Amino acid sequence: MNKLSELAWKLLSTDKFDDVSTLAVKTPGPVAVRAAEDCMRDDVLGVREEGNNRGRWVLEYLKAVFLGPGNPWCQAFVVYRLIKAAHALLINIPKEFPRTGSCTVSVKWAQSEGHFIRRADIELRRTRVQVGDIAYFWFPNLGRWGHTGIVVEVKPDGSFVTVEGNTAPSPSSEDVVREGQGVYAKARTLKSLGVLGGFMRLPY
Q1: Are the beta carbons of 60 and 83 closer than 8 angstroms?
Q2: DSSP-assigned beta bridge partners for residue 200
Q3: Which of 28, 81, 128, 134 is most deeply buried (CB count within 10 A of its CB)?
Q4: Average pLDDT in the 107-125 region?
């Protein structure tokens, strides 16, 4: 990384000129890790819509965030998987955790709690992507975070694999489909997150 690129990432990072000590959560907690493990089951990866943003499992995901059929459900999928993982481990998710279908609401909450790691922090090697991190993709055309998925694998080269709801197969790791018809495992790079993308890292 050249000096100009380093300066640009520092300006976009969590703490512009300090180190990783500013990040509140160092490692994803047991609920987040269990959710990642559960995402790799065939019954999860086999979920497909039955109509537009509808279907048996899509409805279950949307119920977890108090939404009805027809709504986008990528964030609902993440919340549902976290809830199911917590139940399996007999761990209570704190009440302040937002049960929302909005990626933007989730990111803003994570930022306020010190649970959000910006792409810039990873680029500067202040920390690294870990299994159980929840990826949020920034869409400049929307001016917001518009898609999410759970990290289930991290490659030696720093790329990673997510499991995402409401998506579809895409031609490359940098193409992010946010209105697809099912749950898929996706190969991702940091670039795919967008400039302001990043990860929610939960301590539980």
Answers
A1: no
A2: 116, 134
A3: 134
A4: 91
